C-alpha cells in the first residue's frame, strides 16, 4: 500500500506540473503571387522559456524586456520558419507588437517576404519550440491566391506542400480529429475530472459504504450516462465558444475546471451526489467545453473552415475520451471488490486528485506557480 501511495503521489505531482494550457502559436500567412505577408503570435511565456526574457526575475515580461531582445527574437523565430515558392522566400520581421490572448500575453511579429515564383505550389516548414517542447502546436491559416488552408502544425506535420487549389476537406477534418484526440490525452485536468466521475461507476453506496456492483451492465449504464452528459455539455460550449458567440476569460475557465476536479474527487470521499453523477458531468462539462475551445477560438478561421475544423476536433475529443473509458471500465470492474481498488485506487486516488486539483485551483485563480515541471 505504501508503494502504491508513493507511486500515485509521484504520478499526480507530475500531472500537476503539466496540467496547464498546452503551448500554441498562431500563424496567419497571405501569399499573393510572389508577395508574402504574415502575422505570427507567439506566447511571451514560450519566448521566455526559449530565450530568457525575464531579466529581473519578477515573473513578468515587460515591453522593455521584449524590445531589448527584439533582434534575438526575430532571428530565433525566423530560423524556425521556412517558406518557399519557386525557391526559398527570404523573410524579414517588419514590426513587433504585443497582444493579449485568452491565456496571456503574446508577441506579435509582422513578417514580409518575396518569393522567386509567383505561381505554383507553396512549401512551408514550421519547427518553433519542437526541440524544447514536443507538445507545442502551431495553428496555421494560410491563404494562397485567395484559397484558404487551415491546419495544426506538430512535430509530425510541420512540413506542408500546398497549392492554390481547394484544400481537401477530408484532410482538414482528419487533421483536426487527430488534434482533438491529442488534446484530450494531454489535458490532464480533463482526464482527472472524467476519471473522478468514472471511479465510482463500478461501485454502489450501501449503508454509507462503497461496495462493488453485482453486474457489469450496471456499471456500463452508469458510465454511459456520465460520458453522454459530459459529451453533450462540452459539445455545446465548445461550439458556442469556437463560433465566437460566448467568450470567457481564460483564468476563470481554467480555475473552474480545477474546481470541477476538486468537487468530483471530493464527492467520491463524501458522496453527496451518489446516484446522479451525470448531472455533475453535465454541469461541469459546460465549463470544460470552453477549455477545449481554446485551441480553435484564437485562430479566427473563416466560417466554412471553422465549421469543419470544429466538427473534426469535437469528434477527436470524443474518440480520445472513449479510448480512456474502454481502457478503464473492464479493468475497474474486475478489481472493484479488491482492497487495491477500494482503498488504493478509489479512496487514495481521490484524495490525491483532490489535493493536486486544489493546487491547480490556487495557481490558476491567483496566478501563482506552486508546482514546477
Share of residues in strands? 15-25%
Task: Tell me about the largest β-sheet.
Answer: 6 strands, mixed
Order of helices and strands: HEEHHHEEEEEEEHHEEHHHHH
Give the overall form: elongated
**What's the gyration radius in Å?**
23 Å
Number of helices: 11
Structural class: alpha+beta
Count of individual beta strands? 11
**Mean pLDDT over all positions:** 86
- Helical content stands at 40-55%
Strand order of the largest sheet: 4-5-2-1-7-8
- Uncertain regions: pLDDT < 50 for 5+ in a row? 4-8, 14-20
How many domains would you count in the coordinates? 2
Distance between the termini: 26 Å
What does it look like?
It is a single chain. The chain is of the alpha+beta class. 53% of the residues lie in helices and 20% in strands. The chain has eleven helices and eleven strands. A hairpin with a 2-residue loop joins strand 7 (137-144) and strand 8. Helix 6 runs parallel beside helix 8 and helix 7 (216-242) runs antiparallel to helix 10. Residues 4-8 and 14-20 have low confidence and may be disordered.
Structure described in brief:
By secondary structure, this protein is α+β, with helices and mostly antiparallel strands. 53% of the residues lie in helices and 20% in strands. Helix 1 (2-18) runs parallel beside helix 11 (339-366), helix 7 packs parallel to helix 9 (277-297) and helix 8 (250-269) packs antiparallel against helix 9.
Topology:
Elements: H1 2-18, E1 24-32, E2 35-43, H2 44-51, H3 63-68, H4 70-78, E3 81-84, E4 91-101, E5 104-114, E6 122-126, E7 137-144, E8 147-153, E9 159-162, H5 169-186, H6 188-198, E10 203-206, E11 209-212, H7 216-242, H8 250-269, H9 277-297, H10 303-335, H11 339-366
Parallel strand pairs: 1-7
Antiparallel strand pairs: 1-2, 2-5, 3-6, 4-5, 6-9, 7-8, 10-11
Helix pairs in contact: 1-11, 5-10, 6-8, 7-9, 7-10, 8-9, 8-11
Amino acid at each position: 500500500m505504501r508503494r502504491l501511495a508513493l507511486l500515485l503521489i509521484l504520478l499526480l505531482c507530475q500531472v500537476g506540473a503539466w496540467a496547464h494550457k498546452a503551448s500554441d502559436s498562431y500563424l496567419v500567412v497571405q501569399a499573393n503571387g510572389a508577395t508574402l505577408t504574415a502575422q505570427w503570435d507567439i506566447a511571451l511565456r514560450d519566448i521566455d522559456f526559449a530565450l530568457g526574457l525575464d531579466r529581473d526575475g519578477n515573473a513578468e515580461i515587460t515591453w522593455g524586456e521584449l524590445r531589448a531582445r527584439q533582434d534575438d527574437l526575430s532571428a530565433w523565430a525566423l530560423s524556425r520558419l521556412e517558406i518557399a515558392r519557386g525557391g526559398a522566400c527570404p523573410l524579414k520581421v517588419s514590426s513587433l507588437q504585443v497582444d493579449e490572448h485568452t491565456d496571456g500575453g503574446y508577441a506579435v511579429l509582422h513578417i514580409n517576404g518575396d518569393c522567386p515564383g509567383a505561381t505554383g505550389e507553396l512549401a512551408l516548414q514550421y519547427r518553433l519550440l519542437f526541440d524544447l517542447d514536443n507538445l507545442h502546436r502551431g495553428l496555421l491559416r494560410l491563404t494562397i491566391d485567395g484559397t484558404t488552408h487551415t491546419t495544426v502544425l506538430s512535430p509530425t506535420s510541420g512540413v506542408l506542400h500546398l497549392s492554390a487549389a481547394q484544400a481537401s476537406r477530408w484532410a482538414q477534418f482528419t487533421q483536426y480529429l487527430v488534434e482533438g484526440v491529442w488534446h484530450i490525452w494531454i489535458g490532464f485536468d480533463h482526464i482527472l475530472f472524467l476519471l473522478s466521475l468514472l471511479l465510482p461507476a463500478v461501485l454502489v453506496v450501501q449503508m454509507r459504504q462503497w461496495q462493488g456492483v453485482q453486474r457489469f451492465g450496471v456499471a456500463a449504464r452508469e458510465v454511459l450516462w456520465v460520458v453522454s452528459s459530459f459529451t453533450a455539455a462540452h459539445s455545446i460550449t465548445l461550439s458556442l465558444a469556437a463560433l465566437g458567440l460566448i467568450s470567457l476569460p481564460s483564468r476563470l475557465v481554467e480555475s473552474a475546471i480545477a474546481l470541477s476536479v476538486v468537487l468530483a474527487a471530493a464527492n467520491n470521499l463524501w458522496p453527496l451526489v451518489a446516484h446522479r453523477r451525470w448531472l455533475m458531468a453535465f454541469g461541469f462539462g459546460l465549463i470544460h467545453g470552453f477549455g477545449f475551445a481554446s485551441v480553435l477560438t484564437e485562430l479566427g478561421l473563416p466560417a466554412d473552415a471553422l465549421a469543419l475544423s470544429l466538427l473534426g476536433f469535437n469528434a477527436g475529443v470524443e474518440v480520445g475520451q472513449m479510448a480512456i473509458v474502454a481502457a478503464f471500465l473492464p479493468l475497474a470492474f474486475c478489481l472493484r471488490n479488491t482492497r487495491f481498488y477500494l482503498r488504493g485506487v478509489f479512496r487514495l486516488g481521490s484524495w490525491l486528485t483532490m489535493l493536486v486539483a486544489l493546487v491547480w485551483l490556487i495557481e490558476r485563480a491567483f496566478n501563482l506557480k506552486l508546482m514546477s515541471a
